[in-house]
Design a protein that fits this description.
By secondary structure, the protein is α+β, with helices and mostly antiparallel strands. The protein contains six helices and five strands; from the N terminus they run H-H-E-E-H-H-H-H-E-E-E. The chain has a five-stranded antiparallel sheet with strand order 2-1-5-4-3, with helices on both faces. Helix 1 packs antiparallel against helix 2. The longest helix is centred in the middle third of the chain and has 14 residues.
């Protein structure tokens, strides 16, 4: 089906299509996100389910937040310590931990800090990938830039 055919589909339907199968490679998931969510700025990511360290982050993360992709994957504490707004760290980490424990999807909004100090609201939609013996092995997510409450698209002042 042509991606434009999905543009009027509910977001949840498009998200399910983007995530596809647990065995799908991350570049394919990233491609589907670009095709099925063209009206949104999105970051596609994958992290270790035990440590939450990023294993894959789309180049759009650098475009949207200004942090080099390599920092996300090379620094095990980069996401919680440098990206998430300090007031949202506990909520974000607990949401991920509960998702892993339950082996269930989760969806929450957080504030992310850009490299130049701005704040961007992101909706983080997460799926848990379960491996052998029903053990959660990966988290896969799509962060969608959200307008702030006054309607300003994609960023707030710090």
């Amino acid at each position: 089906m042509h991606p434009d055919a999905h543009s009027n589909s509910p977001l949840s339907d498009r998200i399910d299509l983007i995530f596809g199968q647990a065995s799908d490679p991350m570049p394919l998931i990233e491609q589907r996100a670009q095709e099925l969510l063209p009206e949104h700025k999105v970051i596609v990511w994958e992290a270790d389910a035990a440590t939450f360290q990023s294993r894959f982050i789309s180049r759009s993360a650098e475009e949207l937040l200004g942090h080099p992709v390599e920092r996300w994957t090379n620094d095990p504490n980069f996401w919680p310590n440098k990206v998430i707004h300090t007031d949202d760290i506990d909520t974000a980490l607990s949401q991920c931990a509960v998702a892993v424990a339950r082996r269930a999807a989760c969806d929450f909004t957080l504030r992310a800090l850009t490299a130049d100090g701005r704040i961007v609201r992101l909706r983080d939609i997460i799926r848990v990938v379960v491996g052998p013996h029903n053990i959660a092995t990966k988290l896969r997510g799509i962060m969608i830039a959200m307008p702030d409450p006054d309607g300003t698209p994609h960023e707030l002042t710090a």
